[in-house]
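Usage

Read records sequentially. Each one opens with the input sequence:
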Amino acid sequence: MALLLVLLGFGLYLGNAFNTLVAAGFVAYMNRFQIIPEERILFDKFGKEYKTYLTATRRWF
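and closes with the structure output:
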């Protein structure tokens, strides 16, 4: 979340709309290559307890 805000803030500072696309790409990359594999491993390790945790929390906020 913090890195996403840094990317968006830097884009605003530069006045460059392209950085919005970079931030969107960052979100897509993190979901695909970090969050989903990590959730799979945590589910394998903790099972039903982790599934309950997922229903109570969000990924990004």
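Summary fields computed downstream for this record:
- The longest helix spans residues 18-46.
- The helical segments are 2-14, 18-46, 48-56.
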